[in-house]
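Annotated sample (chain length 475).
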Amino acid sequence: MGSLATLPVFFDLRDKRVVMTGGGAGAAWKTELLAASGAKVDLYAEADDIGEDMAELLAAGPVDGSIRHHDRPWGIDIFQGAAIAVGDVESEAEAKAFYCAAKAAGVPVNVVDKPAFCEFRFGSIVNRSPLVIGISTDGAAPILGQAARRRIETLLPPSLAGWAQLAARIRGEVIDRLAPGPKRRAFWERFSDRAFLAKSPANDDEMKASIEAIATAGESGGRVTLVGAGPGEAELLTLKAVRALQAADVILFDDLVSNDILELARREAKRMLVGKRAARESCRQEDINRLMVQFAKAGKHVVRLKSGDVSVFGRAGEELDELKREGIPVQIVPGITAASALAAAFGVSLTHRDCAQQVRFVTGHSKKGGLPEELDWHALAEPHATTIFYMGGRMAGRIAARLIAEGLSAATPVAVAANLSRADETRACGRLDGLGHLVEVIGVDRPILIGVGPVFAEFQAMPVEGPLAAERAAG
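Output written by the structure step:
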């Protein structure tokens, strides 16, 4: 784990005494927050120092008398028996005095907006209590922390609070009926998946029935999720893909999957590279199938992480057949396919109605490694279409020659890209008769995607873009 500016911890303040001083807006916010956490807040502030926000808070009369106002300034006698102390004071001298008095009494202390006199800090909060998320920038960028809070708020449905309360109610039942290990983990993973998808929490009886079903099931609890990792950029993952990664016990990943994506996975998950690349030593598909079955039968949640979309040239069919044959539960989480990333990189529509009435995804090589002869090449030479060739880098020159031989104009625009959506993304455009040269400049040692069709016409004069390609062109 990398270094932490501060250690995030959560205080249990229920029914504990907390010392608060100050009557301004900052003090009012901290007082309300402390009372909401169940603390008994002793507020020390003279009546003349009580501002509008604090006055409204005191007039509202929080339930169970959790805020007690003492019309007097703070003194060294107020700290005895306090769990924490929070001060909202004006001068540096008073801040230091408050800090030292609290420290002398052995009470953790925070002085509002005075970082030098804070032993702990209040962060931005996302409240789905009992699920509570705290966000801190160690005082360096509060606005950034607030922006992060807003982003998280949009990701967490309000109903999550009800699910968290339900989890607290059934936790004892889960511990009693499900032993630690695969079955208990399987229950909580399914519970969590439902919590993010359902608009309202399930009832207790329904959850208890689910617990009982898992407890009495003969299966190991193992399962496999085939996850599309998208073209490479971590931000292009779906939320469902991220949840799968964070629930995995074992991750079998292609070598085209970026490190940024793997960083989103559960820390404890076992990670195994099982990549398959042309002209390189690769893991056999049979070995990948065997590993998935082996780990799933051992009760593990296996995530098979593939670049792009699982169902587009990813050999998912063979994996699904094997898993179904072995009776292992399997789920597919689709990802953004590379063709969509190619369109985004060039800023085009693959089906612009003035240029293309269809789009085709085509493999660029056969099982034997040559040009796929079983394709209808005459149909692929249709000029009013967009054709995307996957894994066609080494066949680029032969693809161009075949299409031209079938009647497609040599001047047809083509687009080539490597490492789409990554920092070293490289792309170029040109004519069909120059496709082999474009790919050679970009380099066949990287994953190449080829687009053919008039939608790329406006980019035909575009120079090769990307650091690696520029170096090769210059060399």
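Annotation: The mean pLDDT is 89.
Annotation: The chain is about 35% helix and 15% strand.
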